Amino acid sequence: MAGNDTAQPPPEHHLDGSRITDRASCYAALGEAVNGPGGYYGSNLDALADCLRGGFGTEPPFTLVWHDAAVARRRLTGPAVIGERELSYFEAVLDTLRTGGVTVLLR
User: Fold this and answer.
1) What are the two backbone dihedrals, phi and then psi, of residue 24, each rounded to the nearest 5 degrees?
2) Burial class (CB in 10 A: 0-12, 13-18, 19+), 35
3) CB atoms within 10 A of CB 2
4) pTM (2 decimals)?
5) What is the DSSP letter of 3?
6) Per residue in 24-45, pLDDT tens?
7) Confidence tier at 7 by pLDDT (50, 70, 90)
8) Which of 48, 46, 21 is nearest to 104 (CA)?
9) How far apart are the two ends of the chain, measured CA to CA in Å?
10) Residues with Cβ < 8 Å from 43, sequence gap 6 or more?
């Protein structure tokens, strides 16, 4: 009997960037996007990286479709340092997600 070896595509989650007004609302929206209403997926960059390593619900690989990303980009402007690079906070969140195995599509 032949097995069914068709690979399933990674799950896709949708993040509403129009609701993001600051860092706290970014993590609240991200938590709900990947883990449902009231879901948690970090409260800062280090906690986000921890969630991406597993044990907090959804684990990579998955695709995150970030709607109204331009709104979030305008609101998450403060600096963040990752390694030796200084990025905007928006870019730091993107970098953390992508480094953690998430495909992020900005819409």
Assistant:
1) -60, -45
2) middle
3) 4
4) 0.91
5) -
6) 999 999 999 999 999 999 999 9
7) confident
8) 48
9) 44
10) 24, 27
